[in-house]
Amino acid sequence: MIDLMNVDYTTKIPNNVDLASDRQVLKALEGWHPGYLDWWNDMGPEGFQESLVYLRTAVSVDPKGWAKFDYVRMPEYRWGVLLAPQEEGRKVNFGEHLGEPAWQEVPGEYRAMLRRLIVIQGDTEPASVEQQRHLGKTAPSLYDMRNLFQVNVEEGRHLWAMVYLLQKYFGRDGREEADDLLRRRSGDEDAPRMLGAFNEATPDWLSFFMFTFFTDRDGKMQLESLAQSGFDPLSRTCRFMLTEEAHHMFVGETGVGRTIQRTCEAMLAAGIEDPSETAKIRALGVIDLPTIQKKMNLHFSLSLDLFGSEVSTNAANFYNAGMKGRFQETKIDDDHRLTRDTYAVMKMIDGRLQLVQEPALTALNMRLRDDYVVDCAKGVERWNKIIEKTGVRFRLELPHVAFHRQIGEFKNINATPKGVLVDDATWQNTHDQYLPSTVDGDFIAALMQPVAETGQFASWIAAPKVGIDNKPGDFEYVKIAA
Amino acid sequence: MATATLIKQHVIDPEICIRCNTCEETCPIDAVTHDDNNYVVNAEICNYCMDCIAPCPTGAIDNWRVVEQAYTLDEQFSWGELPAQEELGERADGAIEALEDEVSALLEEARRGLGGKPVAPSSASKPTVNLYNRGKPARATVVGNYRLTAPDGETDVRHIILDLGQLPFAVLEGQSIGIVPPGATGAGEPHAIRLYSIASPRDGEKPNANNLALTVKREPGGVCSNFLCDLPKGAGVEVTGPFGATFLMPNDPAAHIVMICTGTGSAPFRGFTERRRRAMPQAAGELLLFFGARRPQELPYFGPLQKVPESLLARHLCFSRIPGEPRTYVQDKIRADAERIARLLRDPHTHVYLCGLKAMESGVDEAFADVCRGAALDWAVLKADMRGGGRYHVETY
């Protein structure tokens, strides 16, 4: 009997999909493996490939077995193919095929569509590793360094997850796509990554935390929608990826939260009440709250672009075909076909931002984006609670969805974070108030001094409330010169 | 019993939780729910299955409060931070070593010689406790049952290997499991659960196998020990646990570990030693064992111990009934090795563990006191300090 819960480590590629008896796919993956390792060594975390990192590895996809912690050298991390357990009698839960048994093979008519969905998702995984590869050198603590590397190896595993689907279900096309995933590079002029936000630089740790909070949260929403898929292997893959993605949300939310905490504490200790006294606050070696707001504005707006056009026939097709559902599809109480429903979409009409009813099917991107905004807002509220608790008077706010957009309805307008439309000249004169300026960037860059003593943290960030795997404060999360 | 009215309530720390929904998704019986503010656990539904613990990315999920009355959902929804543990006096002290009162009471009794609140070593891995309980035991299969004592030995001590099959059963060295003997007492009550220390390291009796070993002494008339010792290969047995959250091995390779035991009290130390051998054979920390028995014939693992290199495990075997030889107890060898013991006790990396019969406690305590006097140390102060720092541990029965 094949063992679907526990991970098989007898093949070179740990898996719970019985690769040992699927020779063809095993061979294809083994052929891809050296290229992956080359990519990891070239484009993975720079300068720490020999270090021992206290990482989490799944030994089983059962809830009790997927968080095994130990010291690992990153290139020796057991990247594998892990799918959530198959649900007996699972059905297609939305679209034209509602109620049919979930597909275990790719339906011929949806082959191209599905491949594209998987490639787009897959392309984001190595991209963020590339974007973050220089950050190890300026880590504010060993704890944070370890969290960065955990995020990196898991993004690597997510690439494996998508590549497995390509190799297993898409034959030669799939193999070519898998190779291309290793060929493209974030920010490369000739072969960039497919989505804009994944070609932006992640120059400092605050950007990294913002990225994991905002951009990885887009990943969470996308994975959640794909976990609804009627193509069962995709659903099972994404369900397991979501449990890992949650760690990335954690790194982002607590990273920004700890930065805020430290800023407020430093302000209090120095007797500074006004958060806008940025020069004085920066002199304390912490990041002023208005700058944190600007960083938030930038990363939120870049991440909104990842949802694509508000009104999209592609999204409708994916849904109709049963390939990509809505966020928590099965928890929504409606007909799960949406052919007669409408959804309110914000658009630019007659020079004004207005809500208009659109067919619900074509407005699915908008709906997912709305769910995303709600999810983000809850995290921002937690940050505000941290500020409130210290007594500092300041509130962080998500900018308007029309602010600083490159894709969709608002790409040709200038809106302030409050959603006020302004002309080009005004925008040119004021955008430094809303987005991080070069000066802001230089200041943050100057703060990014590495701290590698156990239990110590850089001046600009507070220690976490609890350690990873409940480790004590002075635990050596990374043995750098191992 | 006073503890009967207390509840161990599973709670989530709202300051650490990031609302990722993993726990709610994972919970097989929908005990986890949320509002716009918090994720919370319904005390009326939660059955301590622990499925949600490992997947939580933040650790927010792994919080417990001993309460007289459970916090309601509405109370939990309103929290901005976790309420402190209420003062319930001695009834709720220390780490939660088990979620069942029956087992907690056994462990409390075993730790009594400690003289204070037990604290885990700072570098110990976080243990999982109570994955399985009497109501929902794990079914293990006996894959080995060997006599450890010599054929002419006066006692029958056995090495029993249990395989957990596909069941998740994460253990750490020093933890115990419960055995549920089948059948009922004369009064028709189910038999009490017995605890046995795990004698194998965390990755299994056989590396990376989902099995574990126990060291069991056949007690005349003992319900559970006779049941276990008589189990043939292939037999099934119901187990609970794992239990214990303080008597754990330090992960720090620099930790020195002084282990003092008699008889089957050697079980956890076999686990400690094997863990060191497998995971960190070059560790800087020393392992030092004091092991007492009547004669070599009655000393469990006497044969295998001869093969363990002295560089990995320094040891003193102490025999009290060899004809024609003076009776030697563990405390005698501690005194005889005073110089090394004093050096180790001065070292902040040193951890001391006692496991075995209660009768050895006072003798060992006096021996440590003597060694300390000779080295200008105050054992009473040092012991309390080591206990508070998770470096002094007792498990006796």
Automatic annotation (TrEMBL), chain A:
Q: Which GO terms describe its biological process?
A: phenylacetate catabolic process
Question: What's one GO MF term for it?
Answer: oxidoreductase activity
Gene3D superfamilies noted in UniProt: Ribonucleotide Reductase, subunit A
User: Which GO cellular component does the record give, naming just one?
Assistant: cytosol
> What protein name is recorded for this chain?
Benzoyl-CoA oxygenase subunit B
Report the source organism: Chelatococcus reniformis
* Source species taxonomy: Bacteria, Pseudomonadati, Pseudomonadota, Alphaproteobacteria, Hyphomicrobiales
UniProtKB/TrEMBL annotation, chain B:
Gene3D superfamilies on file: 3.30.70.20, Nucleotide-binding domain of ferredoxin-NADP reductase (FNR) module, Translation factors
Q: Which UniProt keywords apply?
A: FAD, Flavoprotein, Iron, Iron-sulfur, Metal-binding, NADP, Oxidoreductase
Please name the SUPFAM superfamilies in this protein's record.
4Fe-4S ferredoxins (SSF54862), Ferredoxin reductase-like, C-terminal NADP-linked domain (SSF52343), Riboflavin synthase domain-like (SSF63380)
- FAD-binding FR-type domain span: 135-249
Which Pfam families is this protein grouped with?
Answer: FAD_binding_6, Fer4_10, NAD_binding_1
Residues holding NADP(+)? S197, K217, T264, S320, R321, G356, L357, E395
What GO molecular function annotation could you give as one example from this UniProt entry? oxidoreductase activity
Domain 4Fe-4S ferredoxin-type span(s) in chain numbering = 8-37, 39-66
Q: What is this protein called?
A: Benzoyl-CoA 2,3-epoxidase subunit BoxA
Tell me what organism the protein belongs to.
Answer: Chelatococcus reniformis
